Structures are given as C-alpha cells and as structure tokens.
Amino acid sequence: MTVSRKINKAFLAIEQAEGAGARVRRSIGTPKLRNFSPFLMLDHAKVNPGAGFPDHPHRGQETITYLLKGAIDHEDFAGNTGTLFPGDLQFMTAGRGIMHAEMPNFDYGDNEGLQLWVDLPKALKDCEPRYRDLRSSEIPVVKVDDDKVTIKVISGQSHGVDSVKELAYTPVWMLDIEIKPGGKVNQALPIGWNAFAYVLAGGAKFGVGSNQQAVSQYHNVVFEQEGDEVNIEVPSDAKENARLILIAGLPLDQKVVQYGPFVVTSQDEVYQALMDYQTHSNGFERAKGWESKIGKSIA
C-alpha cells in the first residue's frame, strides 16, 4: 500500500540579483529553505544580454544545470568547454576545486535555466573535478494517464522507465513533468529521501484528500519525508498545462558549512578553502593566471 507524501510547505521563489547582472528566483538556499540535505541551492535564472556568470571557483559540491531556453557556454581552467541547448543538462562535480565560467550565448535567443547545487559526501569532497553532459535527445520520456502527463526521466525512474545513467555522486532523482488539464500522476519516490517540486509554469494540486494543496507558478513545494509517492493533478478547467521539476535526493548525515561557492563541513575547512584559492594550491593550482575567453564578453 502506497503512502502519499504530505506537503511540509510551499512558498514563492522571489527574484533577486546574482552573478554579473543576472536575475534569479532562488528557493533553496534562502531563509525559507536552507540546507535541505543533500540540496544546497536552487536557482531559476533568466539572463539578459550583457549578463552572466563569469570566472568563479567552486569546492565541495556538485552542480546540475538544466537549460530551458537559449544556449549557455561553459569553460574551465582545465580546458573543458562546451555548449548546452534547450533540454540539455550538465552535471559538474567541483570536488577539491574548479574554476569556470558559465555565459549565455545570445545568438540563440533568450536564456533561461535551472541550476541545482547538491552537497558531496564528506569522503568525496576532495575528489577530482569532473563533468557529465546529458543531451535532450538522450533523456527517456514516459507518458501516462492517456498521454495527459509527459515525464522526462532525467535521473531516477518513473513508471517502469529508468534514466540513462547515474550522473551525480550523491544519489538524486530529477523528473521534468508536464500535465495537461484533467491529468494526474502518482510518482513513486525512494523512501527516506528529501523531495521537492518547483513549478515552472501553470499550477497544480499536490497531495490527496484534506492534505491537497493548490500551488502556482514559481513556487517550491517541499514534501514531508514520510511516504513513498507524490500525487499531482491539474484541474480539468485549468487554462494551461502545468510544468514542474520534481527532485529527490538521499540526505547526507554531515554538517554543512558554506562560504559562497565553497561547501565544506567545518569552519577550519572554509579558511583552508580560501587559503588554497588565494595561493593557487590543493586543487586550485590551475587557477593561477587563468581567465576564460567567454567571461571576457562582459568584462
């Protein structure tokens, strides 16, 4: 017998400035929801020409970038470069240290995307940095409820369909779900994992019975940990489809100490990260004198 997860809270992601002239709606990583293990931050960014995320470091976390519109270029101090297009994802493990730039390519129109920061287990925080790209064409798609619900299985599984591969060290499920008016879906989730849904468009009802709650665009829905599925539906009289990103992850039993782009487990490690970055050591050797080509576009 399945148990539907109740909603812990739902709140609007307020737009704010980030990077160099970018505007983001941040839901995780704010006073409303901080360190929802293993999740550290969720940004929904819409970037205008002349703005972006030029050269900056990371340590101790993984980032998952999901492009919704336009194109975004990336470049790092190890010589890795590439471009994401709509529906593409990049999973980056910062590990012991990375310095990179992420810049919208406006040759392809308006730019919009999501970026999720995921904590790394303490034993892996000193690993070598790595990237895994997942192209839109590689993502399995499943349709349910007489094709009224379309689910892109980015990571994890849905209705008997598995994702292509494991893309992060920390176990994470990520599903892009679109529901037409009158559609409903019961999505199983691993027991004991933390889970949330971010509503990209339209509105939907989450939960069942007296615990059901209507949630609108740009809201983050945080679920209780108890239960093994989430229930989502869109009323038949809705004016538009709902689109949401449903994400679940294995909680990590460790302290989180974050200082900007450095995510460690103690204050001493923060000081060490700052020292390593400033002295170009212990993972940041290649940062010395490095400047990205793409970051110079807004210099």
From TrEMBL:
Residues 22-118 form the Pirin N-terminal domain. Gene3D superfamilies: Jelly Rolls. Residues 174-282 form the Pirin C-terminal domain. InterPro entries: Pirin, Pirin_C_dom, Pirin_N_dom, RmlC-like_jellyroll, RmlC_Cupin_sf. Keywords: Iron, Metal-binding. SUPFAM superfamilies: RmlC-like cupins. Its cofactor is Fe cation. Belongs to the pirin family. This is Pirin.
